[in-house]
């Protein structure tokens, strides 16, 4: 399949992911998810008729099912579920009728199932295999994340290890990219990431080390906020991910958090769910996209 179709599928999956996150917000904020689900599905349907070469100038949302089913010679699934989603979208967007949490959960499940079944039917690709990792600008970090993604179901420790190192690399590469050109201007409190995400155990730490822990935590927080990242997501990521060390030779190493150190063998696989690991993977992808899109365009007039 042409790479342009893959890129658009990746974006559709990203939009679907945003909708899932929105659906888990408290009422009435969760209502916005039905608009996002609908947009993601409509983009998928538009991509499908283009891929199958069966489009026309203007297609109503529910007309896609007949057009695509006729072209395929088999039924495109979830027509009734998508009709209910479409009606809920119209009621919300045009008449201000908020959907219930029950309806939102129903639409979330229906949308997910639609993508799983339809992606395989039309593009012969598992929707699970459409990965946002391809949006990451750095090939090195892409490879680390792909390795992690392949191990999520079989070895959570290795998956989390690669994800944690990826996050440290994203930040160090960003700083290395900017420093030669602009100096350390992205964050005046930025620290050396060779010991990123590492804190002394609160049990064994001296008073000086405890102060250092607090200062490091403040430094990390300022950096995350200054880069425009989601701080609440960062806190969750920080709770799950490993401490990362970088040696003077440039190698990256990890150690689990203190509560996992005594029983490392197998404990990671029991402590965290697959959804926890996927959350960390998605956070690093999102962080990478945000950070690599940041640049500073200083002209001589601004520097005068």
Radius of gyration (CA) equals 23 Å
Give me the count of strands.
2
Task: Give the strand content.
Answer: under 5%
Lateral arrangement of strands in the main beta sheet? 1-2
The overall number of domains is: 2
Largest sheet: 2 strands, antiparallel
How far apart, in Å, are the first and last alpha carbons?
Answer: 51 Å
Oligomer: single chain
Tell me, rounded to a whole number, the average pLDDT.
82
Q: Percent range for helical residues?
A: 55-70%
Write the layout of secondary structure elements.
Layout: H1 3-23, H2 32-52, H3 63-72, H4 79-95, H5 101-123, H6 139-151, H7 156-182, H8 207-226, H9 231-240, E1 243-246, E2 252-255, H10 258-261, H11 264-271, H12 274-292, H13 300-303
Antiparallel strand pairs: 1-2
Helix pairs in contact: 1-2, 1-5, 2-3, 2-5, 6-7, 7-12, 9-12
Key terms:
two-stranded antiparallel ribbon, 304 residues, mainly alpha, disordered C terminus, 2 strands, 2 domains, single chain
Explain the overall architecture.
With 304 residues, the chain is an all-alpha fold. The protein has two domains: 3-130; 134-300, no CATH class. 65% of the residues lie in helices and 3% in strands. The protein has 13 helices and two strands, in the order H-H-H-H-H-H-H-H-H-E-E-H-H-H-H. It has helices at residues 3-23, 32-52, 63-72, 79-95, 101-123, 139-151, 156-182, 207-226, 231-240, 258-261, 264-271, 274-292, 300-303, and strands at 243-246, 252-255. It has a two-stranded antiparallel sheet with strand order 1-2. Helix 1 (3-23) runs antiparallel to helix 2, helix 1 (3-23) runs antiparallel to helix 5 (101-123) and helix 6 (139-151) runs antiparallel to helix 7 (156-182). It is elongated and about 70 Å long. The termini are far apart.
